[in-house]
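=== How it folds ===
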Amino acid sequence: MSRFRVLIADDEKKFRRILQIILNGDGHETDTAQDGGEAWTLFQQHDYDLVITDLKMGDTNGMDLLHKIRKARPDFPVVVITAYGSIESAVKAMKAGAYDYISKPFENEEIKLVVRKAIDFHNLKNENRELREALSAKHEPGEFIGKSPQIEKVRRQALEVAKTPSTVLIQGESGTGKELIARTIHFNSPRASRSFIAVNCAALTENLLESELFGYEKGAFTGAMKTKPGKFELAHTGTLFLDEVGEMSSKVQVKILRALENMSFERLGGTAPIRIDTRILAATNRDLKQLVKEKTFRLDLFYRLNVYPITTPPLREYKDDLPRLVQYYLERLSRETGKIRRALSEGGMAKLHAHSWPGNVRELKNCLERSIIVSDGPLIRSRDIRIDNDMAPQAIDLLDIPIPPEGISLEEVEKALIRKALHQSGHNQSRAADVLKISRSTLRYRMEKHGFH
C-alpha cells in the first residue's frame, strides 16, 4: 500500500495521539495540530494527501478550516470528525465540501477504511485531471513525420520500448526531435494517463537543478519557506524526461544514480526516504561515451541510462522526407499564424534541399514560419526563404581544387578524405561520418570498399 501524508487537527491531545498511532501503523506519515489555525498554517507549509479535522475546536474550528482548504484547493479531501449524535453538523460539513465524516467513538478499522477511500478518491480525481491535461497537451504523434528508413527505424524503436518500463537514452543533434521521441514513448506506454514531466538539465545551475529534481523541506536553505516536492516525486507512476543529461554536474549525477538504483531519495534537508515508481527517459546531444572517457560523466550512470538507446537522425540524412515535412509544417503554421495556406514553389524546394540544416527540423520549422510571414501570395518562392547561413558550416568551393593535367583518381581522393576524417576524429567513426556529412553506415560501406581495417 502507498504511503500518504495526513494532517490531524483536534483539540484533544489524547485523541490526536490515538489517530496518529492508528494511521502510522497503517503505513502513513502524520502531522498533528491542536486547532484550526495551527492546522491551516501546517497545510500551507506542507504537501498533504488528506486532512482529518474535528469540527469543534478553539478559535478556528473545523468548519472554518474546511472552508479555507476548499477555497485554496477545491478537490482536496477533508474528513470531519463529529461527536456522537451530531448528524446535523456532519451533514452541514458534507454540504460544505467534506469528503466524508466519522463519529466518535469509532473502530480502528473504520477510520482506516475512510482514510483509504478518501485518498483513493483524491487520486482518482488527480488521474482524471492528468489525463485531461495529457490529452489537451500540445503533443501530436503526427509530428513524427517521414517514411525514410531512418525515421521508420526510430518510430519502430519508440513504439517497441513504450510497452516496457525500461530506461531509454535518446541521443542526437539539437533540433532532431528528442523530446518528441520521449513523448511518443510515454503516450504509447501503460503510463500514458499519468504525468509526463520534462526537465532541461542544462537550463539550471547545480543547486537549482538539485532542488528542482529532488525537492526540499521547509528550512532546508534560506528562502525555503515551505516544503516543495521535486520532479522525481511529481512524476511518481508517470514519466520523468531528463533533457541534456550530459550537462549535469558530478554531484547531481551521483544523486540521480542513487535514485535510479534504489527508486527512492530524500528531499534536500530531509531524512525520510521517499519511494518512487518513476520511469526515466533521458536525452543528450553530447557523446556520453566520450564524456565518460574524459571523466566528466559517470560510467555507472551511463550504463543505468543506456538500457535502450535510440539515436535521432539529423535532417541532412533523410532529405527525401523534406516534401512531407514541409507540407505538414506549412499546414500547421498557416493555422497557427492565421495566414492563408501556402504552397512551396519548385525553386523554393530546391533551395531547401541545397541547405545542410545544422539546426535540423527545428531550423526548418523556423525557416518556414518566416517564409509564411514574408510571402505575399499563396506560393512561397525561393526569394521568400531566408536561411541563416551564418549558422551553417562554412562551405568549401571544391571547384578551386586544381586537377593536374595527367588527371586524378576519384577513388584515391575519397580514400584520402576518409583517412583524414578518421585521423581528425581520433578514429571515431560516428564523428568521422559527421565531418564527411554522411551516415555512419555509408562511411563503413566506403571503408570496406577501400580496404580500411
Observations:
- The chain has four domains: 5-133, 150-311, 315-391, 407-449.
